[in-house]
Amino acid sequence: MGEKKSLLLSGSRIDPKPITGTETAAELIDNTFLAYNAGRLREGCRLFTESMLAGDGTVGMSLTGALTPAGLGMSTIIPLIEAGFVDWIVSTGANLYHDAHFALGYSLHRGRHDTDDVMLRDEGIVRIYDVFVDYGALLRTDDFIREVSKQPEFQRSMSTAEYHYLLGGYLRERENALGIGQKSVLSAAHEHAVPVYTSSPGDSSIGMNVAEIALDGYKLAFDVSADVNETAAIVLDAKRDGGTSSVLIIGGGSPKNFVLQTEPQIQEVLGIEEVGHDYYLQITDARPDTGGLSGATPAEAVSWGKVNPDKLPDAVVAYMDATLGLPLLTAYAFSKVKPRVQKRLFERRDEMMDRLRDAYRAARTFRDERAHASALPGI
Q1: Could you tell me the pLDDT band of residue 375, with boundaries at 50, 70 and 90?
Q2: Domains of the chain, with CATH numbers?
Q3: Does the CA dihedral 265-268-273-279 come out positive or negative?
């Protein structure tokens, strides 16, 4: 009993120093985020900096919730891209659409969540909780997306990563023309060759505008199968080169599943031997007991083959608003880790897809040979 009790009480003593106001964000997290969800964020910050960004780790980020309208694209996501801390992204289309407003020189404003929405509608203002947007900015952004999507290089079937890369180039040109610096996540992703996918491309104003020009005969179409296979290829390539594959999940929803389903796609569908993502860090306000994917725990993900069971003790979920957790995580990372060499995965898509095809064909051949052998008499 004494030995077991000693082990249970082997954690660090809770004995923090008083806060003085001179602490850095990292010092605050390390020294005062000691329990409950603050403690989970501290564990997540250390997991991110000490394991996920270590060595040749590949980090996939998923984004849900209205993050870019609140400015988190500029304050957190772009810096993470530029530092090589995020290598590929799955985002809601809404985050990428509202992100484009900034690159086009349109402004979003702080407002109040309890403002009369009928009055806002009469004044031509759209509300995202306590963020206000001029309705005219939406219409002008729509115009830009439609005109760009009509250009010759878009008139084919393509993955959403290809589409976002091309669109990001146009947004970068507009930023340069306006002289406003880098304001757009897609612009930064284009510059640093970070592939950006959308798991539900029709579920946003970008997809709606692409659907509109389809009525006029334009040939742009999103290849969702390419998205599924390209993201699986990224993960397989990371693991086969001796590195690690990590997921940084901000929120939940469809992007969370899309970044995680890469492992079931590799194992269950393609039949390639694999064991799951190595590291899992999620910041979410969704509960697990409702049965929804947004709140599903990393332990549940193990049962699907999404997470390596041997790494489960390292998985962290911090239950908090992402607009609080992500800036703190970003500040912590910059204080602890030097910028990494960027992987520029968008430029390696063909190479990674070839590797996936080869692994799939080898696995299928092995599976077919076993099936044939088992069907022989006496076998």
Answers
A1: low
A2: 23-94+158-201+222-368 (3.40.910.10)
A3: positive
pTM of the model: 0.93
Identify the sign of the CA torsion 159, 94, 182, 90.
Answer: negative
> According to the model, what pLDDT value does residue 378 have?
58
Cα–Cα distance measured from residue 196 to residue 68, given in angstroms and rounded to the nearest whole number: 14
Question: Distance between CA 312 and CA 305 in Å, rounded?
Answer: 12
Contacts of residue 239, defined as CB under 8 A and 6 or more positions apart, other chains included, come to 245, 274
DSSP tag of 324? H
In the block, residue with structure tokens 């530029």:
82
Model pLDDT, residue 367: 79
Active-site residue set = 306
Q: Which of 245, 275, 269 is nearest to 343 (CA)?
A: 245
CA triple 225-227-229, angle to 5 deg: 70
Q: What are the φ/ψ torsions at residue 60 (nearest 5 degrees)?
A: -105, 130
